Amino acid sequence: MRTSYLDYAMSVIVGRALPDVRDGLKPVQRRILFALRELGLTPDKPFRKSATVVGEVIGKYHPHGDAAVYDALVRMAQEFSLRYPLVQGQGNFGSIDGDPPAAYRYTEARLSRVAVELLADIDQDTVDFIPNFDGRLQEPVVLPSAFPNLLANGSSGIAVGMATNIPPHNISEIIEGLVALIDNPELSDETLFSLVKGPDFPTGGVILGERGIKEAYSTGKGRIVVRARYRIEEKPKKPPAIVFTEIPYMVSKAAIIEQIAALVREKKLEGISDLRDESDREGMRIVVELRKGFDPEVLVRQLFKHTALQTTFGAIMLALDGLQPRLMSLREMMMKFLAHREEVVTRRTRFRLAKARARAHILEGFLKALDVIDEIIAAIKSSEEVSEAKEALTSRFGFSEAQAKAILEMRLSQLTRLEGDKIKSEHKGLLKDIEYYESLLADRRLLLSAIKDELLEIKRRFGDERRTTIAPEEGDFEAEELIQEEDMVVLVTKEGYIKRIPLRQYRTYKRRVQGRSALSTYEDDWPIATRIASTHSYTMWIMNNGAVYWMKTYRIPQAGFGAKGKPLSLFFKTREEEFVVDALVFDPEVDAEKFLVIGTANGFIKKVRFADVLKGRKGTPVITLKENDSVADAILVSDEDVAMAKQDGRAVRLRLKDIPERSRRAGAVKGTTGAKVVSLVPVGPETILFTITQQGYGKRFDPNKEEDGRKQLHPLGRGSRGVVVQRVNEKTGKLVKLLACDEAEVQMVILTEGGVSARIDVSGVPEYRRDSQGVRIMSVSENDAVVDASLVPKEEE
């Protein structure tokens, strides 16, 4: 088994999967091109059925399945697979969408102009030939390859225990590099890499950065990131559209479109209103239309992250060098090609020199014969047989065997004076050719100069502009960069179910609205908090025992109005006895230097550096509670006063300096007495306060407005009952929330115990004295009650 498997492995490596470093072809490709030449199917000849070619290859050179041969033929004809196709195809040879080609009885093929250069001079003893599989015919071991095919077209293949994946390149750049190496074999890698800038894929696209390219060129292996080319098309009075005009190499366009459609269906990608393939003969055009309000650049990054619009080309520069697989650098591959061309041109020169000398020898015989033609004719006429005449010419006149044979085969028309002049002219030209060939063989510099001239001619004939551009490298996308920044309504229930709904989905109402269902809840669960947060901010959940958990808002699952959401325990290891009492929105870069002020239901309060909270582990309590107490609310403040509001409608305003700063695990001090605390708010010089009760009553008032010689909500000492900020009764219900903002143009999002939510423009809410009942802001149905409210800046129309 060991011997058999090794034989099989070497057969696959050498005879099937890996290209030769000299001509860049695998055996099946080489045999197809040679068969096309033997059939005379050059670019100037008519096409022939692909079935003819496949039959020729299978019957004479490649005893394998017809499907394998036809697949190889098809790939060599596809403009999106090879940078410089080696076969001209007529008919359906497949598409970039992944469509299969037509059967070989329908398609036709012939050699391309590039392939002719691979086969050029093959009949001039430039390469070795070996017997075919049955010994009847001869086939080439390698093609002369005047065209640097391996690097120009690349190659890919999987052998046994190894694989190759050589990217295609621009022929102009490859030849510039080869010419530079001919002029200076010690050329630095830096200079060589400046000439050969990087892969040039037939499908275009954009390569990100040069690091992967240089790594592949230096070591033979590297990861090259390729992404689609796109542009943003602006439309009057419509959202912009993203148009992709080029895609990464070896990626199916249809597969990309299906990937995008699947992401939209699964709601993993938002903001796409339409997806169309408008590709035609003019070029590729994948159109992604956006919904209003979505940033096209953010959506493009999401597409690059989640689809094959951005891929990694894993370069493995592995090829056969003398039947041995070797991982090579760019320089080694180019030097191997130049060595092959040097051998080919040397053998070709020797062949041409021998042929020129043989012809010159014959012409010298003709010229000598013309001087004594009458005597030669007489000698021939007097001979009984051809052999006797040949003997007479060699013995009497000193002709060689070859000259004597040529003279005997000479036509009488060549005895004219005009023909004699032609012979002299041809002989003179041959002498110059012989001198040139001898100089090439004698001086390697002249030989390399000839190779250089031939390469420059190839560049002149086949050189073109780069299709793939090389852009500066970008780091991996941060998840936040892939998320559209917009405001979200974050909802949380007592049992810790969380979700977010885009704020734009809430209609704005005047006061006294009934709202709409925003949350599906179970019998023993109800909503307890709603917050307005940007997708790029953080949301923190405050638990009844003082534990805190936080994460990026965009990681909160987005759901519809009727959905329940996902439990917090899916994201954190919460404790069984824990439940959420409040939520907090923050930005660590802005809020790290602030204080986190925590208030308990029984009126205790403390402050702690927020930076210290963020340093701790998620789930660690930030307060030590007394028995039968729980956290009621928490806020972030810089230097403002803090108001503690209670269910009975009273609130106490405390100066921040009067609240002691404590460590994370320390306890709190008494802040107020009386009813249960429901809310904490910061109070500054410009603050406006809003109240909201269980039955939807509320008002606005200015806590700093002078009344009887002092502020409506003036600072008091710790432990006091406070002053009335909302008159409560059976009609209004208890105070639920005290809200603070520094501007009048705000909107309020209100949430009820039954899961009903409303977004209300509070500009119409009148200002009242602090101890008044206020007006009905939201109509609350029977057996329901407001549980939370949040303020958000009013959006511009």
Question: What this model shows, in words?
Answer:
The chain is 30% helix and 26% strand. The chain has 797 residues and is α+β, with helices and mostly antiparallel strands. The chain has 4 domains: 25-144, Topoisomerase II, domain 5; 229-308, Gyrase A, domain 2, CATH 3.30.1360.40; 332-462, Topoisomerase, domain 3 (Orthogonal Bundle), CATH 1.10.268; 485-793, DNA gyrase/topoisomerase IV, subunit A, C-terminal (Neuraminidase). The strands form 13 sheets. Strands 20, 21, 40, 41 and 43 form a 5-stranded mixed beta sheet that branches. A 4-stranded mixed beta sheet has the order 14-9-8-17. Strand 4 and strand 5 form a beta hairpin. The longest helix is centred in the middle third of the chain and has 42 residues, at 330-371.
Strand portion, in percent? 25-35%
- Just name the CATH architecture of the largest domain: 6 Propeller
Could you tell me the radius of gyration in angstroms? Answer: 43 Å
So, the CATH homologous superfamily of the largest domain? Answer: DNA gyrase/topoisomerase IV, subunit A, C-terminal
Give a summary of the structure in a few sentences.
The chain has 797 residues and is of the alpha+beta class. 30% of the residues lie in helices and 26% in strands. Mean pLDDT is 88; it is low at 517-523.
SSE map:
Blueprint: H1 2-17, H2 27-38, E1 48-49, H3 50-60, H4 66-77, E2 87-90, E3 108-111, H5 113-119, E4 129-131, E5 138-140, H6 149-153, E6 155-158, E7 163-166, H7 171-183, H8 189-195, E8 206-208, H9 211-219, E9 221-227, E10 229-235, E11 238-246, H10 253-265, E12 272-277, E13 286-290, H11 296-306, E14 310-316, E15 318-320, E16 325-327, H12 330-371, H13 373-381, H14 386-396, H15 401-408, H16 417-442, H17 444-462, E17 469-471, E18 487-493, E19 497-502, E20 508-509, E21 516-517, E22 527-534, E23 538-543, E24 548-552, E25 566-567, E26 580-586, H18 588-591, E27 595-600, E28 604-609, H19 610-615, E29 631-637, E30 641-646, E31 650-654, E32 669-670, E33 677-683, E34 688-693, E35 697-701, E36 706-707, E37 710-711, E38 723-724, E39 735-741, E40 746-752, E41 756-761, E42 775-776, E43 786-793
Parallel strand pairs: 8-17, 20-41
Antiparallel strand pairs: 1-3, 2-3, 4-5, 6-7, 8-9, 9-14, 10-11, 11-13, 12-13, 15-16, 18-19, 18-22, 19-25, 21-41, 23-24, 23-26, 27-28, 27-29, 28-32, 30-31, 30-33, 31-38, 34-35, 34-39, 35-42, 36-37, 40-41, 40-43
Helix pairs in contact: 2-3, 3-4, 7-17, 12-15, 12-16, 12-17, 13-14, 14-15, 16-17
